[in-house]
Specification:
By secondary structure, this protein is of the alpha+beta class. It has a domain of 146 residues. Helices cover 44% and strands 20% of the residues. It contains 3 helices and 5 strands, in the order H-E-E-E-H-E-E-H. A 5-stranded antiparallel β-sheet has the order 3-2-1-4-5. A hairpin with a 5-residue loop joins strand 2 and strand 3. The longest helix is centred in the last third of the chain and has 67 residues. It comes from Falsihalocynthiibacter arcticus.
């Protein structure tokens, strides 16, 4: 049972961490190296990781996918997708301006010798194995690759989640103290009373048996002296 509980909590913590790591906004400071549009098929197992077509367009399993190519200061490359999230889709970023962002990204393309550093806000993961890309939410030009940006939105969301967990824990503790603990106490008292009654019955049974044995012994023939 102990290992079952440990496995449950490990799976729960891992699931919550993966959920927030995928959906919370993250920021990369990169240099945009190019933009492109590819034709992609969204009927595979990785379709879960893609958002919506442009607002107003019909959903299709095969459609154009906007990509933005970028590079970090150290030279490592990263590829982003640029899709609308729509109004009612998840995660709720309400992004409907992917066309404009693609034009802005093309305008910010720079070379290694004359870099323009851009802080790209995105969500999602990059996996070559699954052919998935993080989705751009917005970007802005920054002074350099070493600029420090505080993720206020992620901090606020995590604090709100921690507050919700604490509130639910307090509600559970109060519910347990008011409803469950008294029932457990009553059940414990009932079991103890049942044990006491069972012990009393056993004691009476032993007493009756002892008297019966003594009565039988009185009928035995006593040896002559």
């Amino acid at each position: 049972m102990r290992y079952v509980k440990i496995t449950f909590w490990v799976l729960l913590v891992t699931t919550v961490f993966a959920f927030f790591h995928y959906n919370l906004p993250q920021r990369d400071i990169v240099r945009i190296t190019g933009t492109e549009i590819i034709r992609a098929d969204f009927s595979g197992s990785n379709s879960f990781f893609y958002a919506e077509p442009d607002s107003g367009a019909q959903a299709a399993t095969n459609r154009d996918l906007r990509l933005v190519n970028a590079a970090y200061d150290g030279g490592k490359i990263i590829v982003y997708r640029n899709e609308d999230t729509g109004i009612f889709a998840w995660p709720p970023y309400f992004k409907i301006n992917s066309s404009n962002l693609q034009a802005e990204a093309a305008d910010l393309i720079s070379l290694r010798d004359a870099p323009i550093w851009v802080a790209v806000t995105h969500y999602g993961w990059r996996s070559e194995f699954l052919s998935i890309y993080p989705n751009i939410i917005k970007f802005k030009v920054v002074d350099g690759p070493d600029v420090r940006l505080i993720p206020w939105m992620s901090i606020i969301i995590l604090l709100a989640f921690a507050g919700l967990i604490f509130w639910l824990w307090r509600v559970w503790v109060q519910f347990r103290e008011r409803k469950i603990d008294p029932l457990l106490d009553d059940a414990t008292e009932a079991l103890e009373a049942a044990d006491q009654r069972a012990d009393a019955v056993k004691d009476r049974a032993r007493g009756v048996w002892g008297r019966f044995k003594a009565w039988l012994g009185s009928w035995r023939v006593k040896p002559r002296k």
